[in-house]
Write a structure and sequence with these properties.
Helices cover about 55% and strands about 0% of the residues. The protein has about 80 residues and is mainly α.
Length: about 80
């Protein structure tokens, strides 16, 4: 459930199709994921998962796979 939720957050924040959201999706590999979209993505993750990513995590959030890894530190589990 959290995997799909995160996938939707990425798709909506970046303005891309859900099918484009895979573990290999990384920052600056598509034109839609620029610095402005990155901050929108972070804000949406914070809101949807009711957390507050710390600065290091915001900077480390470099891919969909990395996002899942980071969120696990906040006790958010992925199947």
């Amino acid at each position: 459930m959290n995997h799909q939720k995160l996938k939707v957050i990425f798709a909506e924040a970046l303005g891309i199709e859900e099918s484009q959201v895979t573990d290999t999706l990384a920052y600056n590999t598509i034109p839609e994921w620029d610095s402005v979209a990155h901050m929108a993505l972070v804000a949406e993750i914070d809101d949807q998962f009711d957390i507050m990513l710390d600065t290091d995590d915001v900077l480390d959030l470099s891919s969909f796979a990395k996002a899942k890894e980071i969120l696990q530190k906040y006790d958010i589990r992925f199947e």
